Each structure stands twice: as C-alpha cells, then as structure tokens.
Amino acid sequence: MCSSMRVSIHVCMVMCVILNVISFQMANEAKPCPCDMGYMMEYGGVGQEVQIEHIKAYLVKPPSDSDKAVIIIQDIYGWQLPNTRYMADMLASNGYIAVCPDFYIGKEPWSPSHDWSTFQQWLEDKKPTNINKEVDAVLRFLKSQCGVQRIGAVGFCWGGVATHYLALQYPEVRAGVSVYGIIREREDRYELKSPTLFIFGEKDDVIPLDQVSVLEKNLQEKCTGVDYHVKVFPGQTHGFVHRKREDINTTDQPCIQEARTDMLNWLQKYM
C-alpha cells in the first residue's frame, strides 16, 4: 500500500473517531446524566471477592468475630466501585460482616460515558425491586457460612431504592439505611416492615425535595408500628455520602461525616 493511501486511511479513521465523540457529547449535552460520578476513590479494599451461589460479592469481615452483617447495595456504577467498597470496609471496621453482592449478576453497570437518554433501556433488566433471588442467596450465605443472626442493609442510589424494597419485603432485615433512593411505583411503598432511615441531599436533581416531602407525609399516615426517619442534608447533591471525598470537600465534610454517623447509629440501634 502506498504511503499516500495509508495517510488517507489514517485521516479517515481519525475523523470518524472525532465525529463519534462529537455525536456522543451532543447526545449527553442534550440529556446529561443527573447522577454524577463524583470522585472515584483510588481504593483497593481490604476484603475479598467470593462466589455466593450464582452471584459474585465483595466480602469483608470485622477484626473480631461478629454475628451481625450488613448487605451493602451498589449504586448504578456497580458492585466494584471503589467508593462502595470503602463504605463496606468502614462498616466492617465498626463490627459488621459486610457483603456487597453484584446485584446486576455480571451485567454491565452504568458508566459516566453512557448517554443518559438510554438509561431507561439500560435499567430494564436491572430493576431494584427484582432482586429477591439474589437477596435470598445472600441471606442463606450469611446465616449458614458466616453464622450471622442479625442482618441490616445499606444502599446508595439504585441501592437506596433496593433497600427501601427490602424494608417492605424482608422483616428479617432488622434495619435499613436508604441513601438517596425512593420506590415510586408500588402501592405498598409506605408499609415498612423494618426500621428504615432515609437520607437525602437538599439539592439532589434525581430526587427533588417535593418527592421527599411526599414520602415523609405518607409514612406519617401509613407507616404504623415501625420506626423510620427522613433526613435531608442542606446544600448536598446526589451521591454526597459515598461519592464525595471528605478530605477535599471541606465545606461538605460535616454533612458527609454526619450522614455516615447517622447510618452507623441507626444500624447499632436496631441490630
């Protein structure tokens, strides 16, 4: 092949790449993702990956034996997000066996490079209210392999919705902390079976304050006999509890630390 032809082909390939990037950027500018990735930690974790029946999971155990476990439920960026594993390790350091299963069962998680206009299509086979098979497997594992007697759940974003779902379906999960997640479509969504803490940010574009107000109002009217608490953190956006770094977000640091302390206190109170 002559050199001029190679140059022409190379230029053509470069132009195709540039056009694809421009098209992608235009699509994202038309409908950007409101669920900001924030700061991805460079964090490897102190736990290990294990196989739990048909799913993989990140498992970390506390320094001393414990009969308490917390299921950490991922956000849309998947079970391998370092930030989520950091939260699992934090829970383990506070005395809990922490397990973060891959609730997407090997399917590709969302990526910041994806076009938000395709999100509903991506979500179609990853419903946070369609996780019973995976939850049942994790519960069996914790009871039979880890000797667990008390179980809680903490979820972020997509996992916050899933945690809300667990509070409706699994009374054996003694406590739940739903971090920026709400079930919107179920008729029984206010009939909690286990104590649940809901954490939100005041400036969350994914879950506006009017939706939080509706949640709180209906819980007051329809949730009887089970404790719950709805807390909104001023000035905070979606993802602030686990996708903001407190060491570089000095203005957000008090809210980040307070929310994590609230999470730990809630689990300790009911587990």
Automatic annotation (TrEMBL):
Keyword Secreted: no
GO molecular function annotation: hydrolase activity
GO annotation, cellular component aspect: cytosol
Keyword Transmembrane: yes
Domain of life: Eukaryota
SUPFAM superfamilies assigned to the protein according to its UniProt record, in alphabetical order: alpha/beta-Hydrolases
Domain (Dienelactone hydrolase) ranges: 55-270
Transmembrane segments: 7-27
InterPro entries, sorted: AB_hydrolase_fold, CMBL, Dienelactn_hydro
Keywords associated with the record: Cytoplasm, Hydrolase, Membrane, Transmembrane, Transmembrane helix
Location of this chain's protein in the cell: Cytoplasm, Cytosol
PANTHER family in alphabetical order: CARBOXYMETHYLENEBUTENOLIDASE HOMOLOG
Family statement: Belongs to the dienelactone hydrolase family.
Descriptive protein name: Carboxymethylenebutenolidase homolog
Source species: Salmo trutta (Brown trout)
